[in-house]
Amino acid sequence: MKLAVIVTEFPKTTETFIARDLMVWLDEGVDLRLYHVAPWRASEILHEFAKPLAERAHHVPLGAPATLAAALRHPATALQRAGSILRHQGRDGVMAAKSLGLIPASLRLAEELNAWGATHVHAEFAGHPATMAWISHAVTGIPYSVSCRAHDIFRSQRLLAQKFGEASAVRTVSRFGATFLTKNVAGMADYDFEVIHSSVDVASIPALPPAPRDKFRLLYVGSLQPRKGVDVLLQALAGFDRPNWQLKIAGTGPDHAKLEALSKNLGLTDRVTFMGPQPYEAISGLYAESAACIAPSVIGPNGRTEGIPNVVIEAMAHARPAVSTNVSGIPELVRPSETGWLTEPGDVEGLRAALTDIHDNPERAAKIATAGRDLVAEEFDLAVNARRQLEMFRSARPRPAEGTAALAGVA
């Protein structure tokens, strides 16, 4: 199998879930190429386990002369896809402009896929990667699939019906996501979405003993942006009256300076450490010392929110008490009083109460954390879910592209 995977950015520090899937597919003997829409992200961490992907990564420059020339070689396809974008996405001028800008690169990608002999194309995220897969499909006819996660489907549903309608399979990472799409995308009410959770390699992750009790160490891992709710966590800790607590924040993002200032204003500077982005190997050590891991997700600007945060899956796989919020598909993993602690998004008092419960009832917390690991092993295991995706690719059958009859011979 020759599999082309399209992502928006590579490397991407926080997207370990994609990299791990790709590594399993390589181990299964798949001939794989990774295409990234944006230029190589030198500022991001390429985790040690994912370094073999670097030699398989390809970038199609959006404005390069060779890219623009591809559009001239496929004028009918370029016009047809442009017309579809304007009809279905035109009311969102910014998104329509971005999609139109992908046409030349997508057509150049189509030529590369044909020359290489790709047998399947998979788009990670329903946004730009799926748009490129959809556009290139009009030239190649190669079956493609899409993975849907969070803001790529929740923020806007324009153009999704077109991209999904020509896809051979569409996967969501949560049952919540599948239900959302059936209700909000035209023509998808009866669509058979593949629900395959994001995963971790449970076999390689030890079930850790409870953290040392000398301090109550807390951990947040992830990007620092509005939908992550880190400001809510800091506000909760400002009134947290248990002694000897510490919080480590591993990650960076557009809200980094704002959150450091908030920490200072709340008088938390001596207890909160902003570590910046960390390699996966370092994160594993942080799990070992932490009494609880928190993902205080909220619904951010423009509807941006989570699917199921991968860091919560990782924390629970390590048998760490996990606190998160009732957002999107998170309750499928974090089940109150069963596998974790669930609060309402933005609920400062509720988050503080959850942390108090973990602090005051360590034996109960350990039992819940063990149940959380059991659930991860059952539904979120990489060995199972990566292979389920691979079977989805192998069983895919090509679907006709919109307008292909009219474009026959003049693509």
UniProtKB/TrEMBL annotation:
One Pfam family named in its UniProt record: Glycos_transf_1
InterPro entries per UniProt: Glyco_trans_1
Top-rank taxon: Bacteria
GO MF assignments: glycosyltransferase activity
CDD domains: GT4_PimA-like
Residue intervals of the Glycosyl transferase family domain: 211-373
Keywords: Transferase
The protein's name: Glycosyltransferase family 4 protein
Protein species of origin: Pelagovum pacificum
